[in-house]
Amino acid sequence: MKFDYLQMKNFRQYPNAKIEFSQSVTKNFTVIQGVNGAGKTNILNAVTWCLFGDEKHIDKKCKGLPIVNSFALSKCKDTTCEVKVELQLIQSDGKRIRIARCEKWKEQNNNLSKVATAHDFLIMREIERDWVGPIYGDDAQYIVDSLIPPAIEEYFFFDGERMNDYFKENTGKDIKSAVFKISQLELCNSLIEHLSARKTEYLRLTRGLSPEADKIRDLIAIYNNSQQKDIEQKNKLEAEYEEAELHEKEYSDKLRDSSLENIESLESERAALVRELGEINGDIDELEKEKINFLHKNMLVIFAFDALTRTKSLIDAQEEAGMIPSPVQNIFIDGLLKKGECICGSNIAAKDESSCVRRKKVEEFLKQNELSEMTKDLINCNIQIQTMIDQLENFQANTVKLSKKLRDLEEKKRQKNRRVEQIDSEISKSDFEEIRDWEKKRGQWAEEKRKKDNEIAILKRQIDRRESILKANNLKLDQELKKEAKHNSLVNLRRFCEDGIRAAEEVRDSIMRNVKDEVCRKTSEQFLSLIWKKGVYKGVTIDDDYNISVLHISGREGIGSLSAGERQVCALSFMAALNSVSGFDVPIIIDTPLARISNVPTRNIAENLPRYLPNKQVSLLVTDKEFTSEVKQTLNNVVGKTYLINFTEKDYGGLSELVLQT
Amino acid sequence: MSSVNKKIISQIENGNYAPEIKELLTDLLKIEAKIAEDKKPRYAEDYDRIIKKLAKNRGYTEEAEM
């Protein structure tokens, strides 16, 4: 999809302005250049206001001021003045959609008020060669929302200047939510919720069918109720944990940004240590789980070890004493009898006495040898016992290995904790009262976070345990209901729903993982090519809690020590990555993309940005300082149209006009 | 949101699930997309119809009509 044009009438400082966006495939960039305050951000606001009825990027200066152009309003006197923004899109199939939003304002006796209008939002669609419509209000909004979902507009229309603070303001939870939104996974969640409701309904329909089933169902209801309460409590605790984390980070950032003493470096070191400790704790948890699984797997052999060795020695002794006959196959002796020939070659088929005696002996041997079938099992069993005993010897070696790994990790954890404690103490003893105060508050929030973490862990265990009980009871209920054939259909419908829910959860989680990995890979790739300090960073990672880290070449976490410009590059890379994996074909508008970045990196970004936003129509709202002759030259091959905002300051406010540069 | 994200559909199609489960999820997602588009709060009837039809195909329900 592309933007065809944007027309603003009496919108903020624009009495009448039109931007015709570049439609060229190769020259897919449109640049709109203007000094600070000329109205660049209000172009972004005009787009979001037209699409969603909301100026999503309004700055403090404009907040509270009427949307209507003051000059136009003053000329209207007692009549109404219309504000209108019209945006025309060209869809990938070439069909156009015209979206228009308007408001009417009136000033009377120095009172400004909005005048109600019958239709303030409409769209027209091009079908075949005709324009169809207008479609008004909610119906029009549904169509717009399906093209550009409002929940993810911020990943297409964004303010480069605020990118610097993106990872300061957004926690792992926000990043996760971004990945979730961009993958459209709310559909999966809604499906799971509705399928669960149907499952519960099928359960409700079984009421009164069997007294025993009713008892189990009542029990399930009690467990479900407690489970729901615990899940709510866990969610509440998680929110409190996040709040504590945010406060801790706030004071941690203050300490790191302070230029006093060596606080800055100590705080950076502590942040890196805390992150490393988190990773070590994760590794310890994994290893402990591995150890427990390993023990479970070998438990039977451990308990039965004495019995196994005793059994083996008994079989061995019997074998040695010749008590266990050799495993001669009955089929072989049967063959001898049929052939009428003994194993020694003599005839046993003849009717003479010696032949009859020999035949009888062979027949008796066959009878005895029925035991040899059991012997075969016994010998097989002996081999299996030996394998189990061997496995136990490996078990010992593996247990020692796992325990050593755990001890090493615990030691590493102790050392890092000691260093964290040293840093805590050093910062607390600072000569500056402000530093001591920040450290105290940081410590209090860190302690609060730890407490919440423990409470969450206890609740999680409780929820998991109850989940197993619920599962067992549901199974019991199914078995009970299945005793009556007429209940089968309800049980099966419930099971079918359960299978569907499980599969939907798997699909959702798997997409989350894949999108996260893809976003991580692309962010890392883009960050490394955009960043001007080559060989300083290894890349960008996103952990399981969706926290973003920039890895320094030394292996230390580096996001905290990035400069404002570097942070902006990191956020820009993340936005471009999210955008490219979104699957939505929406043009991009970036307001002041290079504001905080100095000369060399600016050229670097100008060179690389088109590469990372291929086949996308991109509009850049830039200041003169950003759009230097060097940047202009670098972007020359991709810029199709350039507009200049001419701004004039008047008594009643500013007036801007857009002039196309040739 | 009249169409479902292609990534979700391909994840279902390539997943190791029974054909009826694949069909169930795909059909229900279409309903979800329609609910989102129409802001239609009622879904139970559509869900019921699809669940019963596919559960029957699966050979689960001998007498699914209730």
Shape of chain B: flat
Measured on Cα atoms, how large is the radius of gyration of chain B?
Answer: 13 Å
Structural class designation of chain A: alpha/beta
Spans where pLDDT lies below 50 across 5 or more residues of chain B: 61-66
Helix content of chain B: 55-70%
Mean pLDDT of chain A: 83
Describe the fold and architecture:
The complex is a heterodimer of chains A (662) and B (66). Chain A is an alpha/beta fold and 662 residues long. Chain A folds into three domains: 2-156 and 589-661, Rossmann fold; 184-263 and 412-510; 302-410. Chain A is 58% helix and 16% strand. Chain A has helices at 40-52, 70-76, 137-147, 166-169, 172-182, 186-204, 211-257, 263-303, 305-320, 330-339, 353-368, 370-428, 433-482, 488-530, 564-581, 599-612, 629-635, and strands at 2-11, 14-20, 29-33, 81-90, 96-108, 111-115, 121-127, 130-136, 157-159, 537-542, 548-552, 588-591, 618-622, 639-650, 653-661. In chain A, helix 6 (186-204) runs antiparallel to helix 14 (488-530) and helix 10 packs antiparallel against helix 11 (353-368). The longest helix of chain A has 59 residues, at 370-428. The mean pLDDT of chain A is 83. By secondary structure, chain B is mostly helical. Chain B has one domain (6-57). Chain B has three helices and no strands. Chain B has helices at residues 6-14, 19-38, 44-57. Chain B is flat and about 30 Å long. Chains A and B meet through helix 3, helix 6 and helix 14 of A and helix 1, helix 2 and helix 3 of B.
Briefly characterize the structure.
The complex is a heterodimer of chains A (662) and B (66). Chain A is α/β, with parallel strands linked by helices. Chain A has helices at residues 40-52, 70-76, 137-147, 166-169, 172-182, 186-204, 211-257, 263-303, 305-320, 330-339, 353-368, 370-428, 433-482, 488-530, 564-581, 599-612, 629-635; strands at residues 2-11, 14-20, 29-33, 81-90, 96-108, 111-115, 121-127, 130-136, 157-159, 537-542, 548-552, 588-591, 618-622, 639-650, 653-661.
